[in-house]
Design brief:
The complex is a heterotrimer of chains A (266), B (324) and C (277). By secondary structure, chain A is mostly helical. Chain A has helices spanning 2-18, 22-49, 58-78, 85-91, 95-98, 104-111, 119-134, 141-167, 176-189, 199-206, 211-214, 216-223, 233-238, 243-260. Chain A has one domain (2-260). In chain A, 70% of the residues lie in helices and 0% in strands. Chain B has 324 residues and is α/β, with parallel strands linked by helices. Chain B has 2 domains: 8-243, P-loop containing nucleotide triphosphate hydrolases (Rossmann fold, 3-Layer(aba) Sandwich), CATH 3.40.50.300; 249-308. In chain B, a hairpin with a 2-residue loop joins β11 and β12 (277-282). Chain C contains 13 helices and no strands. Chain A binds chain C through residues 23-24, 27-28, 30-32, 34-35, 37-38, 41-42, 45-46, 48-50, 53-54, 172-182, 185, 188-189, 192, 196-198, 200-201, and chain C through 35, 37-38, 40-42, 44-45, 47-49, 51-53, 55-56, 58-60, 63-64, 67, 146, 188, 190-191, 194-195, 197-198, 201-202, 207-208, 212-214, 217.
Chain lengths: 266, 324, 277
């Protein structure tokens, strides 16, 4: 809790300094909303030609998009700043975090917090509200819990992927785009039912980078959607927790990375 | 691992750090090259001592400091700082030490200086009463009053450095590591910083490890001097002893009543004549009194001074000696 | 940029223009060849996105059959060629010139004895030369391992394609100059740049091949310079259009955009001279 309070103070300080440039903040928020609009445009255009993808209707795909987008947006707001690790390692400024009596990861995230990343969250949340009220979801208590578990689970998963790929920067420089393949690429892949992907990619999304477990698999149950892969129903309820072990692994990788940190300069 | 009880602030035993560097060996090939940045340094710093830790660029000064402050993992050997193993007990240690790297900032660029201090209070979890007291004291000591409300990016280098030092001292650390705290400052600011450090040491009894290129810092502040080069310890002793041990010739400057040809004195050489003033250089083993007596026997002396060798010259000679 | 020009500032006056530009392009090529790790990582990312996009598009075609001439093979080929071309047209934006305006170093660029617009064209072509090989081919090769890829066998078609891609690089180079030079008038270029990225990604056929869009939207996108940067050259490679058509669109847009750059640059210089930056 103490660490979170420290983070809170640091984040608040960042917000204050960002608020010195309101025009930049607003321009950025608008730009982010528009960039994400492209994803919606693609889904819309594809569904002009077909009625279902992987057996999922447009509403169901939009639901998947909104849940995974919301989780990604939360992760982007609070965790994507971990991408700056590479820069801190290169410049040796990571020292500062090691010199202070708090966890290095939480300090880095708080120090690099930017309110303008909120832009990535706005649009998916709006879509989520629209979709969940219009798509036929049977709002039983179990489904409400499942929906929440999906968002929390997917946020955990995205955050873990961000942290693990960023931690690689302690060993190898210039890994940013490599990381993008997993973070942004993962987000792109989990907008659509994974049953349309090739066998090998499905397998990756269910095991190595199990984004399918936190979005598609529970989505089958939540939206009552087609299940061509024949995934067992209980899986839908268990799968959202897949983020936990991945997050633990990410934490260990981060820890190992900080041990390997070499701090440039004489 | 249980840290042995120790009265020393810092203890290093055979502390070493080896870096593997990838170096280019041809257009596409790269090979690993071992670089021994710090080689088996053993050193003890008692509490409340100010020690100057100097060496040429790339000697391993910063690498040592980074191992002592929990930034770098030593390759071998042990270090205990305030009785703690630095990287193992990083968070605990962080509360008990203060660090300033002159080239890097500990402050928040876009925020007023006072806000940075307030944030650090939260980070170090200092009770607000204690914080207010320490801050008031440091504000006066470093004369920060005029720019506490200015964003850090708008401060002059001297102001920023005073802010950095304050930021490292706010949580009342027992041990302070200062890496180049006077780099780039003008003469007045340097003097102010040294004065303040002296006061802090006197009043708080903190242990200070000072890394610097400015030997005037060392002469004014550090009774003890440690010199390293190529990762090895090459000198450790009282700063004053350095001159005796490593010699360096002294010079007797005499103002004679009348100008005359260069004096010939056993054990000394006349290096310069300017009207009635003459410069006589002599080895450290010869006493100034004996030279003066010999001069007085040949001419009438109106005034005299003895010039000590500059510490820069001595240190330069030590570096050169260690290299050849 | 200082890095590139630094060594040739002296002799620049003696060399004729062509040799100066060739040297700028060569150095730009070499400079990018030093970012090895980033190149590998970038090619990997482009490939991953290519796979995902390919599966999505194939899922649609499996139900509808060929869409506006794009069958399975052509659609997948389109996607992987496009993934390889992304960096050539800086699909994710370019900030270099904008940054130089912001920090003031643009002033020295403008007073160099080398034409400003030509300088950046040469630098972008040098860069694209490197990226075409090291970021263009890997996605295509990786795609070919998993999907049916259909590329032309006629040498002439490939030559035409190379000419068109070079034109694409020039068009994109002009486009990002136009966007970044706005920094002379507003401090906040990031918003405008984002808008530039959005429009380009949509209308160039990167988001989806334009064949997938509804008729009206597709027609609107096709007349933009962005379609001329990617959609049209890829169509040419797939045999869906002809060389004269593509080159005519590209040539026309190049004239328009180069004029825009000159106009903007002139206004910027006047502003700098009058207001002192």
């Amino acid at each position: 809790m103490g660490e979170l309070r420290i983070a809170g103070h640091l984040i608040w300080a960042k917000i204050r300094s960002e608020a010195q440039y309101p025009a930049s903040l607003i321009a950025h928020l608008i730009a982010q909303v528009l960039v994400l609009g492209l994803d919606l445009l693609a889904i819309w255009a594809l569904f002009l030609r077909v009625h279902a993808l992987g057996g999922w209707t447009r509403g169901q795909v939009l639901g998947l998009y909104a849940i995974s987008g919301t989780a990604f947006g939360i992760g982007d707001l609070f965790v994507s700043a971990v991408e700056r690790t590479a820069e801190h390692v290169r410049l040796g400024t990571f020292d500062r975090f090691l010199l202070r009596p708090a966890g290095t990861l939480i300090q880095l995230l708080a120090n690099e917090f930017e309110l303008r990343r909120l832009g990535r969250l706005i649009q998916p949340v709006v879509v989520l509200v629209l979709v969940l009220t219009s798509v036929a979801v049977d709002w039983t208590p179990a489904h409400i819990a499942l929906c929440a578990a999906m968002i929390v689970g997917a946020t955990t998963m995205y955050s873990a992927i961000w942290v693990s790929t960023a931690a690689l920067a302690f060993w190898i420089p210039s890994t940013q785009e490599f990381a993008n393949a997993f973070t942004y690429g993962g987000q792109y892949a989990s907008q659509y039912p994974i049953s349309i992907m090739g066998e090998w990619m499905r397998r990756i999304l269910l095991t190595a980078i199990p984004l399918g477990l936190v979005a598609y698999v529970p989505g089958i149950e939540l939206f009552g959607a087609a299940n061509p892969m024949g995934i067992a129903r209980w899986m839908s309820f268990v799968a959202p927790f897949a983020g936990v072990p991945v997050a633990l692994a990410a934490g260990l990788l981060w820890r190992a990375g900080t041990r390997h940190y070499r701090s440039t300069g004489s | 691992m249980i840290a042995p009880l120790s009265s020393a602030a810092i203890e290093m035993h055979d502390l070493s750090k080896v870096f593997d560097r990838r170096v280019k060996a041809g257009r596409f090939r790269r090979v690993n090259e071992r670089h021994e940045a710090v080689q088996a340094i053993s050193l003890t710093v008692p509490r409340a001592e100010i020690v100057g830790y100097i060496g040429p660029n790339g000697a391993g000064k910063s690498t040592t400091i980074k191992m002592l402050t929990g930034i770098l993992q030593p390759s071998s050997g042990t270090a205990l700082v305030a009785g703690l193993v630095p990287l193992e007990e990083r968070v605990k240690l962080a509360r008990r030490i203060g660090v300033v790297f002159g080239q890097r900032s500990n402050l928040w660029w876009d925020l007023p200086l006072a806000d940075s201090f307030d944030l650090l209070r939260h980070v170090y979890r200092v009770p607000s009463v204690d914080h207010a007291r320490t801050l008031a004291w440091l504000t006066e000591l470093f004369d920060l009053g005029g720019f506490l409300a200015s964003p850090v990016r708008a401060l002059s280098l001297g102001q920023r450095m005073r802010g950095e030092l304050t930021s490292a001292l706010l949580h009342n650390p027992e041990i302070v590591f200062l890496d180049e705290p006077t780099v780039g400052l003008d003469v007045v600011s340097k003097h102010a910083v040294r004065e303040a450090l002296r006061t802090i040491h006197r009043e708080q009894g903190v242990t200070v490890v000072l890394t610097t290129h400015d030997l005037a810092d060392v002469e004014e502040l550090c009774p003890r001097l440690v010199i390293i080069d190529h990762g090895r310890l090459i000198h450790d002793g009282p700063t004053a002893d350095l001159k005796v041990r490593f010699g360096g010739e002294r010079t007797l400057v005499v103002d004679l009543v009348e100008a005359r040809e260069p004096l010939i004195v056993a054990g000394a050489t006349c290096t310069k004549v300017d009207g009635p003033r003459q410069w006589l250089q002599f080895a450290p083993v010869i006493s100034a009194a004996s030279v003066l007596a010999a001069v007085a026997g040949q001419a009438d002396v109106r005034d005299l001074t003895v010039q000590e060798p500059a510490i820069e010259d001595i240190v330069r000679r030590i570096y050169q000696g260690a290299r050849t | 940029m200082t890095q590139i020009v630094g060594g040739m500032r002296g002799p620049a006056g003696n060399l004729d223009a062509v040799r100066v530009y060739a040297e700028v392009a060569r150095r730009s090529f070499l400079r990018h060849s030093t970012y090895r790790g980033a190149t590998v990582a970038g090619a990997f990312a482009n490939t991953v996105f290519g796979f995902i996009k390919a599966y999505i598009v194939l899922a649609v075609i499996a139900q509808t059959g060929a869409i506006n001439g794009l069958d399975r093979t052509k659609a997948v080929t389109f996607i992987f060629v496009a993934q390889g071309m992304l960096m050539l047209i800086s699909a994710f934006g370019s900030t270099e010139v904008g940054d130089r305006v912001k920090d003031g170093s643009i002033a020295t660029d403008l007073y160099r004895p080398v034409d400003f617009s030509g300088y950046w064209l040469a630098a972008d072509i040098g860069r694209a030369g490197f990226l075409a090989i090291f970021r263009g081919l890997p996605p295509l090769l990786a795609g070919a391992l998993v999907f049916p890829i259909g590329l032309p066998t006629a040498t002439v078609r490939w030559l035409e394609f190379v000419v068109c891609v070079t034109m694409s690089v020039a068009l994109a180079s002009r486009w990002w100059l136009i966007v970044n030079l706005v920094a002379f008038w507003t401090v906040e270029v990031r918003g405008i740049r984002s808008l530039g990225i959005i429009v380009l990604n949509f209308a160039a056929g990167i988001l989806l091949p334009l064949q997938f869009l509804p008729k009206g939207l597709r027609a609107a996108a096709m007349v933009t310079p962005f379609a001329a940067m990617l959609q049209r050259p890829v169509d040419l490679l797939l045999g869906l259009t002809s060389f004269p058509v593509v080159i005519a669109w590209q040539g026309a847009w190049l004239v328009v955009m180069e004029s825009a750059v000159r106009f903007e640059l002139g206004a910027a210089v006047r502003k700098v001279v009058i207001q002192g930056g």
